[in-house]
Amino acid sequence: MKALLLAVVKGEYLVEFRHIAGHTYIIETSAIVLGVYIFSDNSCLLIDSGGGKKFAHSVVEKLREKGLSIYGILNTHAHADHCGGNNYIQAISDCGIYASALERPFIENPILTPLCYYSAYPVKALRNKFLMPSPSQVTAVIEPGKNEINGVEFNIIDLAGHSIGQVGVETPDKVTFLGDALIGQSILEMFPFIYATNLENHLQSFRRIAKPPLQESFLSHGGRINDISALIRQNNQIIDRILETIKKLIEIPKSREEIVSHFISLLGIHVSRTQYFLISESISAYLTYLCDTQQASVYITDGLLLFKIKDSCF
Ligand SMILES: [Zn+2]
């Protein structure tokens, strides 16, 4: 969700190509890290494709400079800053696209993302490029465990929670790309909020990447992780703080809109309609978690859907 922050230099994106280990490289900008795995035939697998056509063009140019063709793109998830380059790259290279079964429909039918946020065909303000990347065709579904791509085995890790079917990718060089499973420290300091679609799954993802310890891992926003245990702890602390704030708020029953409004004023930021719905979706996920763990309940009174602390849920 950091596509807006991409650095542009003279109309082109400043992309760095760096070797990490064995056949594994990264393409790095100030806003996002893409993984690159180079096969023995000088084709490569991109892990995510960035935020749109312009950025994708810069990525393709950088790979061409290195004498590389694109065999495929493996998307960690369907957010626009991760699959926004798919359409352009697939059109010029006819490459394969790999995604989990739950992310696939969103990549192929981008209207589904704002439709989920809005819960109906969305207002025009939500039918924008930050929520609706150009569609692309997923050619193979990947599942947790070993997946063979161009004769090479990649280990796919279930990191659902940030989005409904997010995955992480470990290359044969033991380099792992974690997508948006964790938020980097510098971003948390600027914006102490953790986006989630399914909070229970998101917390399980933390446990899944906590052990066994990963040798080398990268976040899409935040780059190389130096101390994953500390970062998981920090992410957990922010989630706990959000849960405690919601629990305090709903000691007096409140609608979801009231809770969202409270968080927006707490964060002290002016939000666009797109950002409003991103925060609203996350607050919904936190409320589901509180209900599922019997810490809150939801009911209707006078035509209002209200959340309150402790009672059991329907
Ligand atoms: Zn994301």
Fold and architecture overview:
By secondary structure, this protein is of the alpha+beta class. The protein has a domain at 3-182 and 199-229: Metallo-beta-lactamase, Chain A (4-Layer Sandwich), CATH 3.60.15.10. Helices cover 35% and strands 25% of the residues. Strands 3-4-5-6-7-8-9 form a 7-stranded mixed beta sheet, with helices on one face. A 6-stranded mixed beta sheet has the order 10-11-12-13-14-15, covered by helices on one side. The longest helix has 22 residues, at 228-249. It starts with 7 loop residues before the first strand and ends in a 5-residue tail after the last strand. Zinc ion is lined by residues 1, 77, 79, 162-163, 180.
**Average pLDDT metric:** 92
Helix content: 25-40%
The number of helical segments is 10
Largest sheet: 7 strands, mixed
N→C terminal distance = 33 Å
Low-confidence stretches: 1-11
